[in-house]
Design brief:
The complex is a heterodimer of chains A (291) and B (307).
Chain A (H helix, E strand, L loop, with lengths): L1 H31 L6 H17 L4 H28 L4 H22 L15 E4 L2 E4 H23 L1 H11 L1 H6 L4 H27 L5 H16 L4 H22 L7 H12 L14
Antiparallel strand pairs in A: 1-2
Chain B lengths: L1 H15 L6 H26 L7 H17 L4 H24 L4 H20 L1 H4 L12 E2 L2 E2 L3 H24 L1 H11 L1 H6 L4 H27 L9 H15 L5 H15 L5 H17 L7 H9 L1
Antiparallel strand pairs in B: 1-2
Classes of the chains: A mainly alpha (291), B mainly alpha (307).
Amino acid sequence: MVDFLQLVISGAATGAIYALAALGFTLLWQASGTINFAQGEFVMIPAFITLLGLSFGMPLWLAFALACLAAAAITGYGFKKVVVDPLIRHGVIPLVIATLGLSIGVKNLVKASYSAEAQPFPNLFPDTLFSIGTLRISVYDIGTLALAGAIVFGLQAFLNKTITGRAMQAVAQNTEAATVLGINVRRMVLYVFLINALLAAVAALLVTPTYLAKFDMGDTIGLKAFYAAIIGGFNQTRGALLGGVLVGVLENLMGAYVSPAYKEGVALMLFLVVILFKPEGLLGKVEERKV
Amino acid sequence: MKRHLSLILPLVAIALAPLGLKNYGTYLLTLWCVYVMAGMGLNLTVGYAGQMSIGHAAFLGIGAYTAAILMKLGLAFWFVLPLAALLCFAVGLALGFPALRVQHHYLAFATLGFNVLVYLFIRNEEWLTGGTFGIPGIQRPGLPGLSLEGSRPFFYFTYLSTILLALILWWVIRSPWGRAFAALRDNPIRAESLGVNIMAYTLLAFAIGAAFAGIAGAYFALLVQFIEPAPFHVTASLMMLLMVIVGGSGKFFGPMLGAALVILLPEWLRFMKDWYLVIFGLAVVALMIWLPGGLLSIPEKFRFKRT
């Protein structure tokens, strides 16, 4: 039982990080119909920018702030202007292919110019353990869970309670009607891209100490983010959190109790079950098809 | 006549190419044939039926391992080949059915996850697939009075098979079935209102595409004679998808051009090392921005501009 609880907690911590990436993915989809296959690289880029900052002797917070700025400029604004804006009118497939190409290009750019080896990354939270009875919990897991949870709920509150947030939701639900109501659609869409970039940067800060900074670190987290987003519900903000945590916890339990070799397959199994019985996701709403 | 000539000339040129190539060059050309077979199947799914599939390498792997395992048990290649195709067709149906209940990106994700699962299976189930040690020593079959062991005879064997498969695909696309595929891609809702069963046709296009990959996989096993999990990873699927799209999805010769770009070009540009993929990736982004129809849509673009 104690083992089980420990597995659930550390799984939830990993899952919360998946949820951050998944959340950005979902928001991007809602606001602009973009499926971003470079989401994993959006996590990898800030990790390496932070490392670059650290190598110049900056403290972690300053290096991370720099990474956030760079992320907003490159994976937020730059991605929207250079890749998405010119492609969105051609439909989904060319855009998906372009993000695939971007993923390959960026990955190998880091591999060729920085290093192909995994780089160590400083821990944000101490890696010490504390005990409640026989239960031993790592401060790192609790810190990760708390920070990621706070960000997800904070974002949810922002989307539901503030005027800007509600305008962003209106754009996601019906772009034409939002325009008629005088909402600056272009600005709202830009906000979504910036938020996505920042969410990915935070995910990078939390995940890199365990995954290590490597050019292909985005492959795993990008994949998990997709699954988390779909399992939870592609058009629901809370769904991403549920999906992420579910994937993280189940992976941990599968790895410990069934077979570590198939740990990676859990997300897929869950995904297939979800689309078979509830295609709109666990928390999602059914979307009408437009003719 | 001009049309026929422009088709026959490259065919003859490729057939003559191995005469001037060493073993490795012939090997690459045969590898190109294998990826053309698989690419044609993917093109049917992506280009003609308009569905994203990111798990094509999994079917290539199923084909390759089916062929390798059964041939190791002593079965003849001629018996194993249709079996590999059938197995992939069946698995394609089973995977496509739940995924296609919902549109578009779901098939993409389902195939992606399926690929991960197949890769894990191949890597972990050592009793069946040899795990990371792979299956070595796969024997090439012989034709009556003709050995296919040499790289040149094996190339001609694969080349002729590729042409045969291309003719089959040509026939499928020209058939009423194939026309229904295109109707689906261009306007699914209109096609449905005209009595085309979207689900059935898309599923069929996907399963036939999978069967093509299964056949390609069997040839792949014969070509490399030693199979291990690496060539069937998700990255290979992404590369195959890029082959089809970069060449020109929905164009009959798209996969041929795309496979050449992905298989042959890196060999000439070997001095660039990792930078090749940097340029390739970013070139794909640029291509999508300026030519979303792929390289083979260049003539159309010109014609459109002139009029």
